[in-house]
Amino acid sequence: MNHILKRINELHAISEALEPSNLERVNYIEQVSSYANNFIDGLEQTKAYSADQENLKSLKLFTGKKSLPEILKIYNNEIASKGIKPASGGHIGYIPGGGIYSSGIADFLADITNEYVGMHFSSPGGVAVEQVLLDWMKDIFSFPINAVGNLTSGGSIANLIAMTAARDKYQIKNEVISKSVVYLSHQVHHCIQKALKIIGLEDVIINYLELDDYSKINIRDLKSKIALDKENGLVPFLIVASAGTTDTGAIDPLNAIGVVAKENNLWYHVDAAYGGFFILIDHLKHKFIGIEMADSLVVDPHKGLFLPYGLGAVLVKDEKAVFHSHMLSANYMQDARTQVTAINPADVSPELSKHFRGLRLWLPLQLHGIEPFIACLEEKILLTKYFREQLVTIGFRVGPEPDLSVSYFWYPSSNQSSNKFNQSLLKELHKDGEIFFSSTVIKEKFVIRMALLSFRTKLITIDKALEMLKRALEKINLKN
Ligand SMILES: *Cc1c(COP(=O)(O)O)cnc(C)c1O
Hints:
The chain has 15 helices and 13 strands. The model has no long low-confidence stretch (mean pLDDT 94). Helix 4 packs across helix 12 and helix 14 crosses helix 15. The chain has 2 domains: 108-368, Aspartate Aminotransferase, domain 2 (3-Layer(aba) Sandwich), CATH 3.40.640.10; 371-479, Aspartate Aminotransferase, domain 1. It has helices at 2-15, 22-42, 68-80, 101-113, 124-140, 155-169, 190-198, 219-231, 254-263, 301-304, 319-326, 359-368, 371-393, 418-432, 459-479; strands spanning 49-50, 83-84, 148-152, 180-185, 205-209, 235-242, 267-272, 296-299, 312-316, 397-398, 406-410, 438-442, 445-451. The protein is an alpha/beta fold and 480 residues long. It is globular, with a radius of gyration of 25 Å. It binds pyridoxal-5'-phosphate.
């Protein structure tokens, strides 16, 4: 026995390192806080994109213990200084996340207290926070209060949960799969097709719909495709609409699609990961009419509410459809199953243990109220308008008036193909990096894409972007 006690004491002396002293904790947090402050204060001066992808050697593990200052230095040089800077307001390329400070504080609290929010039994308060947030979202989108929901890591997993519920409600399995039809726009986010593959619906028939000039689903085409598929003995079961496509920010005709879905008994899913929270702006509400008809809805607070990456949400009206694949139990769960009144997040998600991610939204909403969030969204809408107007004055062509804050533009070159010219232009923009743009292809035209959704994107950012575009144009014109 003695040797066991001796060994326990030896191990304790080593493992104790995982519990820093009060003084060390204060010291750590001060260093990290000081790093964070310098990082934020310097954002305005640093580029939104660095093409540097080299030298990640110092990230190797177990090359000797390092002090926190050394680690912060590595973090800064090898991580925070490379690639796209999502925290920068100059990130207007891919739909940006935000990273508001108050979410960071909430994550810190959630990590230290480490609430276990998979089951109500283990953290009634933590699960209630999640429920309060989901109930708020149901209210925003006029979903019934008895809909179920889940806070996920992001839009992709949220969409996966919704697709699974649709599959189970309609019992799309075995020989039914290859006769079942899903109606999609080519503009749907690729996580939808990915979800279908993951949940065993790879062999389902995907009927892609015609789009109008605004890249929105054409209702007449939807109706006739459904009718034709029925005539041919197929089983239409799911239609996915987007409330804000990733590529161009288009909102599909949500109400008309909802009507067609009901008439044909289809599961109606709306992916509002990017655009959903714009419904909070009074004068944009009308664009979302019909969203309340959806059977399931996805929205991403880490996009539209400026949170750091790691928070999506799904709402589903038919709880049975969700529980079918997600509510399972095991003997070791018997104590946790005693509570029957509250919904366990684990019953609505593939996850069991999960990060207490609700706090990163709940705390900021308590601290700031909702007004600054709505103001920030409206600011992005107006900045998009301003940006497009200014682009035209310096010779660019712009895509159609966007519904929200994603748009595209291109330079009409006279002496070489427009696609080639704009490809070189984008290269030049990436080399510069002050502001980060992405690109896409719309009807075979290579275009530069802007997505304004960072809470740090301000008027000064757009003016910088315009200067940068002028610089890049001059450079290319000199080369040609
Ligand atoms: C971003 C996005 C997704 C994917 O969400 P993640 O949070 O990146 O997983 C899905 N749909 C739309 C419309 C999006 O904009």
